[in-house]
Amino acid sequence: MIGFIGIGLMGSRMAGRLLDAGNDLVIYNRTQSKMQPLIEKGAKGASSPKEVGSQADIVFTMLADPKAVDAVAYGEQGLLAGMKPGSLWIDSSTISPTQSVQLAKRADEKKIRFLDAPVAGSTGPAEKGELLFFVGGDAADLEEVHPLLNVMGKAVHHKGANGAGTAMKLVNNLMLGQSVAAFAEAVAFGERLGLDKEGVIQSLFAGPTAAPILHFKENKMLKEDFENADFKVNSIYKDMELASEEAYGHGFALPLSNLVKAFYGLCQQQGKGDYDFATIYDLLKKH
C-alpha cells in the first residue's frame, strides 16, 4: 500500500498518476472534500496522517509550506506516530534543506527511512507524469522507490544526502522566479517602446536568451490570464523567501533574488497571491 498526503494542485495529479498505474493508494488531505475525486477512482481515504502511515509501507507528502509539513509529521495523529519501522517516507514539499535534515533525523529515531524529493514542474507536467525529481537521501532507498518516481516524472536527479534534494529545489526556484520576472520586464519594455507584444515574445523565443520554462508562460502573458494559476505568486514568494533564509544562514547574499522577491511581494499586496506568478508582468507593465 502506498500513502499520499496532500491532495492539492500538484499532489492530486501525482497521486492520480500512481493510482492510474495500478497502485493501491491510501490518501489524506486536511480539506477532506479534495480527496473525493481520487476516492471515486479507487483510492482509500484516511482521517489522519497517522492512519495513512499505519497502512502504507511507502508514503509521499506534497504539502504547501514548512508549517504544513510539520503539522502532518508530528503530534499524536501525525505521520511519524503511525509509520512502521522500516517504512519509507518521501517528502516532495518545497521546504528548506535544514528542515529536511531535521525531518530525516526524527524519522531515523523511529527507524523510518526518509528521502527529500521535491519536484520541478507545475500542474501540466504533473498531470502528464513529466516532473523532475531532485532527491536527497540514501541511494538504496531511492532505488526502491525509483519505479514510482518514474510514474510521476520524466527524470530523477540524486543530489546527495538528506537535504540535498531540497537544496537543489531552492536553487531551481530561485532561478525560476528571476527568469519569469526578467521575461515579463522585457516584454513590458518592448510594448512601452511601441512593439507588438506577440511579436516581442516570438522574437525572444527565436533567439538564445529565452529559457524553455518561459514557453509555459507565453499564453498567460499574451492573454493576460493570470487568475487560473499553474504556480501561485504565494508559492514562488515562499520558495524565494526560503532561499533567502537559507542563504542568510550560510553567509551568502542573494541581492538579485531578494529584489525580485520584493516584486512578488507587491503582487501579494495587490491581492494577487493566488494568481499565477506570471502576473508579475501586469505589475511591471504598469510601473
- What Rg is obtained from the alpha carbons, in whole angstroms? 20 Å
Shape: globular
Report the end-to-end length measured between terminal Cα atoms. 53 Å
Mean pLDDT level: 96
Share in β-strands: 5-15%
Instruction: Quickly count the helices.
Output: 14
- Total strand count, please? 9
Question: Could you name the ranges where pLDDT drops below 50 across 5 or more consecutive residues?
Answer: none
Structural class: alpha/beta
> Portion of residues in helices?
40-55%
Main sheet makeup: 6 strands, parallel
**Sequence of secondary-structure elements:** EHEHEHEHHEHEEHEHEHHHHHH
The main sheet orders its strands as 3-2-1-4-5-6
Describe it for me?
The chain is an alpha/beta fold and 287 residues long. The chain has 14 helices and nine strands. It has helices at residues 9-20, 36-40, 49-55, 66-73, 79-82, 97-109, 123-128, 139-152, 164-192, 197-206, 215-223, 233-249, 255-269, 280-285; strands at residues 2-5, 25-28, 44-45, 58-61, 88-91, 113-116, 119-120, 131-136, 153-160. The protein has a six-stranded parallel sheet with strand order 3-2-1-4-5-6, with helices on both faces. α1 links the parallel β1 (2-5) and β2. The longest helix is centred in the middle third of the chain and has 29 residues, at 164-192. The chain is globular, with a radius of gyration of 20 Å.
